[in-house]
Structures are given as C-alpha cells and as structure tokens.
Amino acid sequence: MGDGQVMRAGWVIGCDGTGSTTRKLAGVGFPGVKLSERFLLADLRLDWDLDRSGTSGWIHPTGMLGAMPMPDPVSGGDNLWRLIAYDPGHSDDKPGEQEILDRLRQILPERSGRQVRIGEAEWVSQFTIHRRLADRYRNGRIVLAGDAAHAHAPFGGQGMLTGVGDAENLGWKLALVVQGKANEALLDTYEAERRPLATEVLRGTANVTKVNIASSPIGRFIRDRVLVRLFNLAGIQRWTTYTTSQLWVSYRKGPLGGRGAKPRPGDRLSDRTVVRADGGTTRLHAELGGHWALLAPHAGANELETVARQRLGDRLGILRHQDEQTMLVRPDAHLAWRGSDTAGLERWLDGALERGQVSR
Fold it and tell me: Of 99, 130, 161, which one is at a domain's C-terminal end?
C-alpha cells in the first residue's frame, strides 16, 4: 500500500483506471492509439439562461461544447453545470485550473452564443481520448475490470456502463470460485464474454470522437449539415438511446451461451413481473441483486430447485412466471439455462462450473 502496509489476498481485481498499476505489474499489454487533442472538463456555477431540463450541446468550427445540469449538494442551488469542451491546438502539457477557467470563459459565449458569467468552480480537469484494450483480462489471480481493461471516449456514458457490466459479470463468477463451488475455468468466461463487447464499444466511441472533432471541410459538412439534422429525428434518437444503454448486450455466442427459442442462454432478460413463494408479486430484477433466480412455470419444480441449490448455494430465489419452461437466471440478469428436465440443468451446471464451457 502507499503507506507501506502489506496486504495479502487470494485475488486482486484491478479497477484502478487507464493508468492501472495493477495491469502494469501483471505484465498485461495495453495497446492502442491517441484519438484527440485535449478536452476540458469542469463543474462550474454559471449564471446564464440555458434550460436545465436536459443536456445541451453545440457544434462550432472551433470545437464541440456540451453542458449538463448537475445537482448541487453543497448549496442546493440550480446553477451547477458539468461542461465538456474540445480544445485543440494546444500542447500536451496539462493546463492548470486557472488556464482551464480562462479558456472556458472564452469558449462558453463563443460556442453557445449566450452571455454567461462563470462563478465558483467545484472541479476542473482535462483529458485526451485514447482507444486502448488490454491484451487479456486475467493473468492468474489478477483480473482487470473497467478502465484498467479498456480506454475510450466518455461519450454516452459508455465507460461507466461497460465498467459496471464488467463488475456484474465478474462478481458472481469470482464468488463461486472463492466459495469452492466452481473451478477457475469459470473465470475464463469473463474475458470471453466481456472483451468482445469492449471491442465494439471502442469502435463505436472512436467513430463518435472522429465526428465530434472533425476538422476537414468534408468532415465538418457531414457533421454540421447531415448528422445534426439526422439526430434530430425521433426514431434516430430512440435508436441511439437504446444502443448506448447496452440493454441489448448478449453472451449467446460465448462459452456459456446457447441456441434455441428466444430468449436464448446468454441473452439479457428484460425485467418482468414474477411471483414469490409467499404468493406476492415482485419484479425479476429486484429479486436478483447478487442472487440467482429459478423461474418456474408452476410451484412443482422441486427437483430442479434441489439441483440448482446443491450447486449454487442459498443465494437462489425460487419464483414463478408465465413461460412454459423453467429458466435459471444469472445474478447479472442474463439467462443461464432454460428447459424442464433435471439432467439438462445438471449438464449446464457441470459445464459452466467445472469447465467454463457448456454444450450447445
């Protein structure tokens, strides 16, 4: 530790950001490229006439500007804003707080077309956008997650969502291994399921970055005259929201996925009404929270429950639903298995927990 304290643990999860010391000490490569010059970030109290009902953005010949209203836990006021501004044409030296504020005083009225008075700064920073992906997510008992495993543009909250997804995927697998209920082979499925998604996210955010920082006449024309109008269409906005939400993520092609009727093993199950053992109704996602769920079409799924509980332990909820087949749902809300016979469930559990690979 930084204070000289020594800690010993069976596993180390590196969630220490793009400059991850854990990744470096584990000898894991982090190849990639730089995509942009510097962006400025700041949480500022602003006096201007901008509507706080949503996020606003401006495309300007000198660069993009975004403004997001933020809650103010200090004063309880309604004038705190998160700003992000592309600021090309400067050296790679990190600017100080005063330089960032001076630049924003120039950028805000220039790009927004509004008169604005900048008040107190809660926080300022800067960053450059890189596209990087770890060579591997695991080296023995060291596992990488979040920005330590993948670096990309922050547009659309993709870094946060991908990191949360990493944690949800890794958490239940590591728990079973630590508890002695699964072999370490199960942990190999973490990279197999999550790294392909990170590759897609890197590709998508890189394209968004290139559009936002376009400097050529053709690039600016496409961005300013074509894409701005296109993204004002309601259908495109709905598609963009769904895409950036990552609710579409599926692991059906991974080592724990499967074929058959939809939803298929590996697919994310949408939230739905289910019935608890006491007869009360609840929502599926509310019952997960680190637990498995066995969704049965009726109360007589005792044999399946016994098999699942023997292998997975007490963190298993038994719920009823309207589907004709029983479904075993992972703690990360993805479908593990569906069927009606105990032999099929046993085969899936044997493959997943012992070999990290199930038969299709």
Answer: 130
pLDDT (0 to 100) of residue 1 = 67
Rounded to whole angstroms, how far apart are CA atoms 47 and 271?
Answer: 41
pLDDT number for residue 254: 95
How confident is the prediction for the chain on average, in pLDDT? 90
Contact 354, 185 (CB under 8 A): yes
* CATH code where residue 151 lies: 3.50.50.60
CA 206/CA 188 separation, integer angstroms: 27
Asked if 291 and 344 sit in the same domain, the reply is yes
